[in-house]
Amino acid sequence: MTEPLYQRDAYLAAFDAQVTGVEPDGVVLDRSAFFPGGGGQPPDTGVLEVEGAELAVTGSQRREGRVVLLLDGDPPPAGAKVRGRLDWERRHTLMRTHTALHMLSGVIGRDYGALVTGGNFEEQKARMDFELSSMSAEFAEAVERALRVEVDADRPVHVSFLSPEEFSARPELIRTKANLVPQGLEVVRVIDIEGLDRQADGGTHVASTGEVGTIYVVGHQSKGKGNKRLRIALDPVPAAPAHAE
């Protein structure tokens, strides 16, 4: 089992670890700050330093309950000491984009009472689907204005953990039409944009809505009866400072 360092510290950009398993195309580590992908968020990339050499980390895959870091090159042996370094600019952009989606979910839930039916994102752009009966350019413009207000409010973003029993007693923490939280978790991670949105989530986020930067609603469309899509985009901004162990 790999200790997921990213769950408690999204700003950890470098870390030391040990190889506990080897695959033909990658390794399993005892601890990692690389987000392995999931919930619409792509996996992190970066490098793994091994005895002075660098191997590119091209992604991750979950295999039989293990997280395998995919490497460009021959993987180091089990027991090897390594240092991982994230592509921080990419990671921080994904963090900003992910938080922007939670802001979108919060605004739509607060102002229109609609649940999320799907979503996905990459660097600086994302889409989210909602259980809405109609969609228009005026609606999209109103949502964009509301999102800009939330950026200016610079709301703090908190991370907390609940037991399965505590989580089951809080159905409002499921903001999607279908419950996508995996079964059998020992703890459930919750992301709280103070005063706007609180929901179960396993991905990485920035520390405040102000760090997201300007959000644009760049598209809207109908995906069928009662299912409408909004697309958003972000400006590029300098990466926030990261820290390393």
Keywords:
single chain, 245 residues, alpha+beta, Elongation Factor Tu (Ef-tu), domain 3, Threonyl-tRNA Synthetase, Chain A, domain 2, 2 domains, 6-stranded antiparallel β-barrel, 4-stranded antiparallel beta sheet, 3 helices
What is the distance, rounded to the nearest whole angstrom, between the alpha carbons of the first and last residues? 21 Å
Largest sheet: 6 strands, antiparallel, barrel
- Examine the secondary-structure arrangement and name the CATH architecture of the largest domain: 2-Layer Sandwich
What Rg is obtained from the alpha carbons, in whole angstroms? 19 Å
In one word, what is the shape?
globular
How many strand elements?
Answer: 16
The helix content, as a percent range, equals 10-25%
Q: Please tally the helical runs, counting DSSP H or I stretches of 4 or more residues.
A: 3
Number of structural units classed as domains: 2
> Looking at CATH, which topology of the largest domain would you report?
Threonyl-tRNA Synthetase, Chain A, domain 2
**Kindly state the mean pLDDT as a whole number?**
93
Report the β-strand fraction as a percent range.
35-45%
Which class of secondary structure composition applies to the elements?
A: alpha+beta
Order of helices and strands: EEEEEEEEHEEHEHEEEEE
Name of the CATH class of the largest domain: Alpha Beta
CATH superfamily of the largest domain, by name, is: Threonyl-trna Synthetase, Chain A, domain 2
Which strands sit side by side, in order, in the main sheet? Answer: 2-3-7-6-5-8
Q: Detail the poorly predicted runs.
A: none
